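**User:** Here is a favour to ask of a fellow structure person. Please take any protein you like and set down a full record of it. No explanation is needed for now; the record alone will do.

**Assistant:**
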Amino acid sequence: MMPRKPLLILLLIMAGLTASAQKRVMLWFDAHANYKRLSSADSIRFYLEKSKQAGVTDIVVDVKPITGFVLWKSKYAPYLGEWQGHKMPQDLNFLQTFIDEGHKFGLTVHASINVFSGGHNHFNKGIIYGQYPEWQSINYLDTGLTKISAIKSKYSGMLNPANPEVQKYQLNLLKELIKQHPGLDGVILDRVRYDGFESDFSNVSRKLFEKYIGKKVANFPADVYSYTKKDGKPVKTPGPLYKQWIEWRASVIYNFFVDARKTAKKANKKIIFGDYTGAWYPTYYEVGVNWASNKFEVAREYSWATPKYQQYGYAELLDLYTTGCYYYEVSKEEVHQSNTYRAARTEAGMSTQRSPVYSVEGSAERAMELTKGAAPLLGGLYVEQYEKNKDQFIKAMQMCMDKTNGLMIFDLVHIVQRNWWDAIQQVTGK
């Protein structure tokens, strides 16, 4: 008979290995960046096999990139049949090929849609440049109200999330996508947010906000905020309705998630309903999003939040959540050791502040705290941030695996360009 202590140790080791094996390793396939690469069934099959060999368990196929064009035959949205001079073969059923071939390799296949994005401003392409220019975000800059299509410093031509017509359109697309692909395992919503704190200040938003607060806004948008000069630069100065505006925008996104979940589950009750956001929660209110659990008392920690803001935490609405721990610094200690941040912080709502939470470790831990186990959480990494430092990338992947329920890697194109499949294998043990 085996002594009790060695048996207990063996059981603990086996349990640890099982838990590690159960963690998802997700690889994202961006539509624009990989358009030519993924325009044949053979190529799709090749990269799925590479993914499986590297220890990837889940893949995310971007089928509605930021232009608002889609990669399935839709009666609502235009088809992305060409990108940068390359055409998609007419006989290729793009997503269905991923589903069929992915399942052969035992991969879980999710489709990603960029919900409230409708244009690529660097190419002047998208639905805001075509059939729906009136849906684009109106941003309140220090120079005045400006259509987002005119702000070329922004590559993503965002829509107004509060617009009921926009919401109905996106829900129709979500339903259509799932219905057309009954073998699809999951959907991951991306860009379910505002462009930034400067959006949206259209007349549609004004009327909806007035309805929410139950009164007319005397001075719009100045009662939300105005611009004043500080050291010669324009600075936002909060107005009397500043906090209510933040609360209302979070309610818009929350209520959309309620409707999106109902729509997805009605189309396929087994579908995995997922979401991606950035991990920088302290400033994510700037894009109108409260991705925390509704049990997290936001107003106790953050001065910009009303007590009601807590109600619009939507983590409980998700079956799967992945958050971008998009920092070069892996450990919390590295934040204090480095003199400058190695990776530029250019994502929407991202802070330039120096803090342990702005590391892979710190952001992963904080995300787990905020979501309170409402849904499995995968720590996400942006491969490009690690430049040529494979060891740092490996450390970052391992940190996500250790601190969250798994790992999300963005994107395939960067793994291929660097040939870093072996780096993934080091973490997955394949």
User: Anything to note?
Assistant: Confidence is low (pLDDT under 50) at residues 8-20. The longest strand covers residues 58-64.
